[in-house]
């Protein structure tokens, strides 16, 4: 057995390097994927919250707009901003984040 290992040590080392290289590459890809997912989620929340505040501030000084018009404006601006950052968002996710941000604004106003 020892003789077999000595005769094939370079092949065994090459195999181990390949296996460990594959494992580390897989782990690296998985970590990068999870990191990107977390960063994108955080970016989406921040962009939508800032966009909702922008629309509310803009509409406070301009003509009266309906809630639906404000929501559509927030959607357009948020999608534009997220596209500039290279972040994709679904329609459903955008609706949920906008509603959550609006609710947060209303709760903040109630406390004041």
Structural notes for this entry:
The protein has 112 residues and is mostly helical. The chain contains 4 helices and no strands. α2 (9-61) packs antiparallel against α3 (67-85) and α2 (9-61) crosses α4 (91-111). The longest helix has 53 residues, at 9-61. The chain is rod-shaped and about 90 Å long. The termini are far apart. The model has no long low-confidence stretch (mean pLDDT 87).
Largest sheet: none
Number of strands: 0
Radius of gyration: 26 Å
* Overall helicity: over 70%
Overall shape: rod-shaped
Terminal residue distance: 79 Å
Low-pLDDT ranges:
none
Round the mean pLDDT to the nearest integer and report it: 87
Topology pattern, helix = H, strand = E: HHHH
Structural class: mainly alpha
Please summarize what this structure is.
The chain is mostly helical and 112 residues long. It is 88% helix and 0% strand.
Descriptive key words:
112 residues; mainly alpha; 0% strand
Task: Please outline the helices and strands.
Blueprint: H1 2-7, H2 9-61, H3 67-85, H4 91-111
Helix pairs in contact: 2-3, 2-4
């Amino acid at each position: 057995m020892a003789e077999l290992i000595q005769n094939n040590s370079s092949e065994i080392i090459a195999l181990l390097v390949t296996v460990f290289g594959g494992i580390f590459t897989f782990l690296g890809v998985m970590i990068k994927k999870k990191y990107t997912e977390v960063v994108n989620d955080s970016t989406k929340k921040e962009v939508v919250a800032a966009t909702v505040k922008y629309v509310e501030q803009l509409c406070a000084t301009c003509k009266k707009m309906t809630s639906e018009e404000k929501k559509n404006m927030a959607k357009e601006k948020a999608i534009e901003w997220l596209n500039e950052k290279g972040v994709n968002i679904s329609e459903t996710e955008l609706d949920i984040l906008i509603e959550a941000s609006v609710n947060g604004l209303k709760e903040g106003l109630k406390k004041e």
